[in-house]
Amino acid sequence: MTTNFHLGDQPPSAKRGAPLAQAHVLITRPVMPASRSAQRLAALGATPYVFPTTIIDAPSDPRPLKAALANLSNYAGAIFVSPSAAEMTLAPFGAIPIKLPETLPVFAPGHGTAEALQLLGVEDVAMPATTFDSEGLLALPALQASSVRGKRIVIFRGNDGRELLRTELTKRGAAVDAITAYQRRAPTTPPIGLIELIRSKKLTAISAMSSDAVTHLVAIVPKAEQPALLALPLYASHERIAETAREAGFRNVNVTQAGDAGLITALLNSLSRGAGEG
Length: 278
Known about the structure:
The protein is an alpha/beta fold.
């Protein structure tokens, strides 16, 4: 179900002087990571509006996921490609988290996924040192051919995810199981609240942390409201997402560092520039 709400109802006295008091941010992430983003933005005085443009469902066939979880001790490494991959693999829909073997090396492409894993009890998570994406993961010493050749690696991901990790690790000699832990889809309920929000002209920013978030957002907004939508500043957490936004027609696209920290830093910098120009 599409959630449509905001968490910015602090008393005026609480927001006065807060660093993000002027920011009204549309958060397009799935519900669970969106709620964390909203809380962090609200703590800095922003008004966050949560409207997930990607809905997370269980996989259509749960058997491969169940089989992989039953055989975790056979793997030499587990890669979780997103916060949703972590949550839907280890604690789907708020279930009691599954415990991973202590000896299993765990990898995440960025801080958001690592944080989701840590919230689920996975303390030791390896992350890229270069770019926070599949390419960054593939640059890690622990995933080079000399380390993975002849070993079995499991990738927990969504449906129709990128094939780069599986393809490259296979080339390096690993036996790779790419497991669909969840399905992504666009919302199916009418975006009445979102349309009202666009018409109100309150929004000052859109946060997009996946390409799906952008394409689904544009698809569900009626053509009459799209000029106003596409004129809004959009903050993309990766250049690949930014390119999707530009192709969709967004005219003010800003590339941030990964995760909530990257979004907050970009918003602070934007507001600081605006104040300087004033």
